[in-house]
Amino acid sequence: MYWSGSLCLLAISILMAPVILNSQSDRRNSAPDFALPLRLRPGQPPVSRPPTIERFPALSHLPARPPEMVGLPLLVRAAGMIFSGTVIAVVRRPSTQGQLVETVAVTFHIESAIRGATRGQELTISQWIGLWSGGQRYRVGDRVLLFLYPPSKLGLTSSVSGAMGRFAVDPWGRVLLSAQHLSAFRADPVLGRKSRATFKDFAQAVRLASEVE
After folding, report:
1. Helix, strand or coil for residue 175?
2. What is the tally of structural domains in the chain?
3. For residue 114, what are the domain limits?
4. Using CA atoms, how far apart are residues 203 and 152, in angstroms rounded to an integer?
5. Distance from C-alpha of 55 to C-alpha of 51, rounded to nearest angstrom
């Protein structure tokens, strides 16, 4: 009788063991809910989600393709401003109620202009701080030739297709083409296989590229 009762208890224990273990496992794996209602101080406005802001101009303006395939015609079509100049001021601007994102204001003295600028003008552009942190930076004294997107609804811009829309300019005013530019422009009738070009030749190449459909 004793052995019979013991065997029954053992059989019940074996049958119940998976249920008990699963229950304990579920309790261990489930995340405890420690969320509490947020208590506001008297006079403190209710917390809301940050507003949705406009995405900054980026490669979405151009067809999806490798940088070396972004030729001069695509850069010309996407650009709202094309000019060469010297950086004379860089100012970081915090976000405000009127401007929802932190920006960097970069001022150029325009030396030569093709589109959207005037020679001799001091032109200030606003760039999203995120692009600055990502490497698209300027320093006072930099001489550059830029293809810039048209300003967005927030007044922001950046170089077309990142590094593809930015060229260094040497002390003699010649536009320097990087290895990436050389690869992309190798078939260009004016700039093909040139590591540097006068602004006159570069402007001619832009004019011809603008005629390409």
Report:
1. strand
2. 1
3. 68-210
4. 25
5. 12
